[in-house]
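Human: Here is a favour to ask of a fellow structure person. Comparing notes only helps if you start from a blank page. I am asking you to supply a protein in sequence and structure-token form. Write it directly below this note and I will take it from there.

Assistant:
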Amino acid sequence: MRTVQRVLAADTLKPWQYRSWMHPRDPHFREKAEVILGLYEGIWRGRRLGADEAVVCADEKPSVQARRRAVVPPAPGRPGRVESDYQRCGALQYLCAWDVGRGLPVGRCEPRNGIAAFDRLVAQVMGQPPYRSARRVFWIVDNGSAHRGLRAVRRLQRRYRNLILVHTPVHGSWLSQVEIYFGIVQRKVLTPAAGHDVPQVGARILAFEARSRQRPRPFTWRFTRREFRRWLDALAA
């Protein structure tokens, strides 16, 4: 055993550690990604966005489960405890649009995902200021079935003349900033126990969203187009 340890240490090998990865499969991955990163930098087709334009990232967080389980609150010198066994009590879908420039979430809870649910989110956002009167509102979405392809582009732009739908590359939803917000919701609201029924889970999510809107904070996005090109070139090397 010690001989194996010495060999591994000499070559700095750690076979018990690994990372997963996925090579870009979208033939237009670079072009699509740079459009999104350009919007984060305030650029669209070589021109700077105006003050009357907005960029939002939208997606669904599906199947947020309500689970009935025993919870013991923390005490001095002792962490809280959550029973590992639980009873499933239904699920909801959380749809959210994240305003990149203002750092604001606008979301809703739905019983199921789909085109109708996503269109209600779009109507909720586009029906309020500043989006209602904005010159252009860029919606960054992934390739989920509710907003995939040219059919979704035509459907939404027919209803909202100032809406421009921008798709991430295939397997490129990590470029959408709303995924960061979903991660925050998961850590601060849904973990370790989201709630014992669907109404309670939904109320907690929307209450956190309301507090986030009171203290807006845009994300500091450092993955620029220049950094992206370096990363992609290194990946291809």
